[in-house]
Amino acid sequence: MQILDIGCGLGQFLLALKKLGYTHIKGIDTNPEAIKHCQNNGLDVEKITQITHYQGQYDFITMMHVLEHLPKDTIIPTLHYIKTHLLKPQGKLFIAVPNAQSNTGCYWAYEDFTHQWLFTAGSLKYTLLMAGFEHITLIDPDCLVGITRPKKIIKKALLALYKANRKFWNRITSSSYHLPSPEVYSYEIKALITNTPPKG
User: Fold this and answer.
1) Could you tell me which of 62, 58, 82, 47 has the C-alpha nearest to residue 13?
2) How far apart are the C-alpha atoms of 10 and 7, rounded to whole Å?
């Protein structure tokens, strides 16, 4: 399996893959210091300035906390290039971005000076659709995976109250624009996308 980590940073994910026995793994980044750190750890990492200058065909591509750092007018072209030039047919793209709808959304917006945008679940899905992707799955939207049953029950109850409160105020204000989000407890939005070939 050919794996590419876009915006690999210090290479933590690549190192984890290497320890699991994956051999065909590669990272790309723009930060010279991060790239040197990765290379000193024996990782295959390359410096790029534009994604459209990069070539390759991969079964699995990750972009973890990358999109929010890109200029807005480059996001859709970047994703479209990944779909058409880097990701194999039926290949998988995994994306993680800070969640603007979470209780810590404002924190995420201002904590990192290099953040240019934040995404909601809806805006991320719309962006991916505009880039040509069709099969998009949000992973653990209720943020309930990996927690104990008592905590899961409490989270579900609080989530139900949150949704009821939002619906109540939508009714009072005659607004349906701000729909209740199931993502309120998750600090990030995670999506797994399958690269299906164009129809026809």
Assistant:
1) 62
2) 9
Cβ count within 10 A of residue 96: 18
Whole-number Cα distances in Å, 118 to 10, 74, 175: 23, 15, 23
Q: What mean pLDDT do residues 55-81 have?
A: 94
Q: Which two tokens stand for residue 104?
A: 């810590």
The torsion angles phi and psi of 114, rounded to 5 degrees, stand at -85, -5
pLDDT digits (tens, 9 = 90+) for 109-152: 667 778 888 888 889 999 999 999 999 998 865 555 556 777 76
Residue numbers of the domain that contains 170: 144-182
- Residue pair 37/43 in contact by the 8 Å Cβ criterion: no
Q: Give the span between the Cα atoms of 152 and 53, in whole angstroms.
A: 45
50 and 120 co-located in one domain:
yes
Are 75 and 167 in a shared domain?
A: no
DSSP state of 141: T
pLDDT number for residue 100: 82
**Residue 86 CB coordination number (10 Å):** 19
Q: At what angle do helices 121-130 and 72-81 cross, to 10 degrees?
A: 60
